[in-house]
Amino acid sequence: MQLQLEHRVTPSFRMMLLSPLIAVGLTLATGAIIFASLGKDPLAGLYFFFFEPLTVWWSFEEVLVKMTPLALIAAGLTICFLANVWNIGAEGQFIFGAIIGAILPVLFPELQGYYVLPIMLLMGFLGGMAYGLVPALFKVRFGANEILTSLMLVYVAELFLDWLVRGPWRNPGGLNFPETRQFHEFASMPIIGDDRLNIGFLIAVAVSILLFVFLTRTFSGFGVRLSGNAPKAAKFAGFDRNKTTYFVLGLSGALAGLAGIIEVAGPIDQLRPAISPGYGFTAIIVAFLGRLNPIGTLVAAFVLSITYIGGESAQITIGVTDKITRVFQGILLFYVLACDTLIVYRLRLRRATPPAMDGSNPQEASS
Amino acid sequence: MLSLSGITKRFGTLAANDAISLEVSKGEIHALLGENGAGKSTLVKILYGALAPDEGEIRWKGKSVRFANPAAARAAGIGMVFQHFSLFDALTVAENVALALPGDRKLSDIAKTLADVSKQYGLPLDPQAQIGDLSAGERQRVEIIRCLLANPELIIMDEPTSVLTPQEADALFETLRKLRAEGRSILYISHKLEEVRALCESATILRHGKVVGTCDPRETSKADLAAMMVGAGVADIRAATDDRAIGERALVVNGLSTQPASPFATALKDISFAVRHGTISAIAGIAGNGQSELFACLSGETLMQDASTILLFGQPAGTTGINERRRAGAAFVSEERLGHGAAPTLSLTDNVVLTRTAADPEMTTRGFVRRSRARSIRETICEAFDVRRGSPDPAAGSLSGGNLQKFIVGREIGRVPDLIIIDQPTWGVDAGAAQNIRQTLIDSAENGTAILVISQDLDEIFEIADEIAVLFEGRLSPFVPVKDTNREQIGLLMGGEGFEPSNTGQLNPLNTDANEPAAGGGHAASA
Question: Nearest chain B Cα to A233, which residue?
Fold first, then answer.
């Protein structure tokens, strides 16, 4: 007896919906084992980690605050990944967008007025776009792998931000702390909740819906899906591969940059050496958990956001390290990718001996 | 010698092989006949140890066996020559052979053995030649010799003539007869009836994974064999009438040359021809002589330096993209169905959007795709071209090769284009669907469409074309009217014998003996 993967004739639609749920279930089960091995009550651990954040309004609001950047970045990454372009550097685009967007309140604090915030958002958007276009340019012009270039640019952006806030952009009245001056009231995101929830959340929801419509209803969105799916067919349909690369990297960079400026103009209200707990990387998990669908990523962003809040909550209540958050996120991505196999394959129990292939001629063509 | 009984192999719900039984005796060439998708490849993979059967027994020399892998089959004395070669282009013949041999042997030894074997069986070959420089026929010789060095008692040959010229095929048959005379058995897989009748003394015919008959092909008529293979008699094609109107030049190509994209790609050299409304012009040639490169240039997937290299309906079009050419009235059917002409994981509706959006203003409103229109076009195509599918809108990749090709051809013809450029219209398509597609092309030509067919299938070309040229090593011979030539002549040209490329600006006869001034003709003549 042995377990075999059998290729499905058509991909299973049911599994397409079920696979993220199975992945979440397996993550919970693995989480229980981890808590138990740490000597904690597994059920209590899971409760504090995954459910407690949803039980009171202030922490629920905090979940929505944290999901805002995740949803924005992941929506952009979805477009990128669908086109088979692998932007791993959203973290860098997030930071660069935040830096460019912060130019007005940091360097020109005397400019006050309702026009300041829209200009900041636009500059953040454009800054992220410019930073996303760098790996696109390298890929198109020199054939450089965008996974490597975009990832390496993350560290460039991090160090650039670090230098700015310790050096030229440091708050002159800030007692030498490595941070910029606080943003003034016209440079801060309007609050819509009780505490820190701001209109950035509405922007994230709106952007997700717009991208969903773009992907499923427009010819250009069709081209994006097609170029990931069947590049030659995309060319046959008249879509230029290079233009698509520029478009998806530019757009996903722009949305990460927008998320960056929303984050610093919202919950943080200034630039510091570290402005992101790895949103740009976590958004990769969000994009896959959300089935590379901008509406799905909204839901997935909510789930991943819980792990951030839950990590803090579990640290306080049951005394585990907050690194557990990254562990859970990693486990979740692992299970999501593994469960996706079930969309195209089904599990079968078999008695027959396995076919041994020597790979001498894996001939596909029928004769 | 070899006896299979009750071999069954299922893939999901599909039984690719359903209780197949087969006998091959010593010193016989046994044909395994069947259409694409009949289960021939699956059966052979089982026999060769590349797949495990779900049920059934293989008896080899009287003993029940089950080969765990191809190496075990080779050790037992079964060799195979695959349809697609597995050779390294950058290595020499001897090096390629050495790679397949077990143990440590000196290259010079191997080269000597190689020379001996090639002399013995009439397979001339230079052991030091680089594979990349060899023709398809020569590469096949390498595969055959590599197989022979293991001294097999049964040789499986999978569609060996699909890449050969008629003359090369004849030479291959001589070799096979020699092998038979030595007492070796050959399992010969094919769907070409003529060669099976010329070569084999027994045949097993497969259809839909089942054995539908065994016979002596020498004593069975071609029509009977075809009927067994296809299931029903295939209707003959109705030829185009002679009194149809031959119109102006739809496509003129003038001195088209390209640089090779990779060391083993084919460069096109100074290609010139024209295609008129109401005619079917065919370009014959063995695969790899520049067909796909030429198609890419004509479709606009590869752009020209000079716009006037390609004239579409009289307008310079060499530098315009595929969608602009579609808008001008051209339609394209690529050789590769999956991944080029259609996106396998997308639905048929999405695949309508793929090529029908550019030239159809009603398909989009302000960039938004009108799915209702795409769906109705999909239904029209599927009904008109009898596309069989499991559900109303399945993924393109789930259709059989023949049905998908009918869909793709239907998608392009359904536009009623003024020019169709079609690469390998019926490659890997079952006989029924092939007939359907060929008839569609003839009907379109009669309605005034200009058609350029690129094909390796001489039967097809002689069935539908008005004029023929041969593409050989990136050069094109002059077009000749089909009534002034024959398979023998074209076959020689395909092998490069007596091949002379046409000159720049020299147009095919159908295009020069017409009196009326043709659109774009001025450009062509002056170039």
Answer: B340
Asked if A6 reaches chain B (Cβ–Cβ under 8 Å), the answer is: yes
Say yes or no to pLDDT of B242 above 60: yes
Q: Considering CB atoms only, which of B40, B340, B398 is closest to A232?
A: B340
Cα R_g (chain A), whole angstroms: 23
Best A240, A363, A366 residue to mutate vs chain B (most B CBs within 10 Å): A366
Task: Please answer whether residues B371 and B439 qualify as being in contact, where contact means their C-beta atoms are separated by less than 8 angstroms.
Answer: no
End-to-end CA distance of chain A: 33
One-letter amino acid identity for B521? G
DSSP assignment of B447-477: TT-EEEEE-S-HHHHHHH-SEEEEEETTEEP
Q: Which residues of chain A lie closer than 8 angstroms to B332, CB-CB?
A: 236
pLDDT tens-digit readout, B392-447: 898 898 887 778 999 999 999 998 999 999 999 987 777 778 888 999 999 999 99
B496 has a chain A CB within 8 A of its CB:
no
The answer to whether the CB atoms of B52 and A217 lie below 8 A apart is no
A327-351 residue pLDDT tens: 888 898 899 888 888 887 887 776 6
Q: Which residue of A has its CA nearest to B397?
A: A10
Residues on chain B touching A230 (C-beta within 8 angstroms): 338-340, 342-346
Looking at chain A from residue 164 to 223, which residues have their Cβ under 8 Å from any Cβ of chain B? 217-220, 222
Q: Give residue-wise pLDDT tens across range A51-65.
A: 888 888 888 999 999
Could you report the predicted ipTM of this complex, rounded to two decimals? 0.81
Give B52's contacts in chain A (Cβ within 8 Å).
352-355
Structure tokens at A365: 């063509």
Q: Is the pLDDT of residue B73 over 70?
A: yes
Going by C-alpha positions, the residue among B433, B427, B473, B344 that lies closest to residue B83 is B427
B494: tokens are 């395909």
Residue-wise pLDDT for A144-164, tens only, equals 999 999 999 999 999 999 999
Mean of the per-residue pLDDT values of chain A: 89
> Model confidence over B97-123: pLDDT tens digits?
888 777 777 888 888 888 888 888 878
Question: What is the rounded distance in angstroms from the CA atom of residue B350 to the CA atom of residue B396?
Answer: 9
Helix (H, G, I), strand (E, B) or coil at A325: helix
Among A298, A327, A241, A309, CA closest to A51? A309
Nearest CA in chain A to B347: A10
| B358–A contact, CB cutoff 8 A | yes
Residue B261 sits at the chain A interface (C-beta within 8 Å) = no
Question: Under DSSP, is residue A162 helix (H, G, I), strand (E, B) or coil?
Answer: helix
pLDDT band (50, 70, 90) for residue A361: very low
pLDDT, tens digit (0-9, with 9 covering 90-100), for B14-26: 678 889 999 999 9
A237 vs B358: CB contact, 8 Å cut-off? yes
What are the pLDDT digits (tens) for A90-146?
Answer: 999 999 999 999 999 999 999 999 999 999 999 999 999 999 999 999 999 999 999
Phi, psi of B210 (to 5 degrees): -120, 155
Could you give phi then psi for residue A174, rounded to 5 degrees? -110, 20
Which B positions 138-177 lie with beta carbon below 8 A of chain A?
Answer: 158-159
Using the predicted structure, report yes or no on whether residue B518 has a pLDDT greater than 50: no
Q: Å from B86 to nearest chain A CA?
A: 7
Subunit contact B159:A6, Cβ cutoff 8 A: no
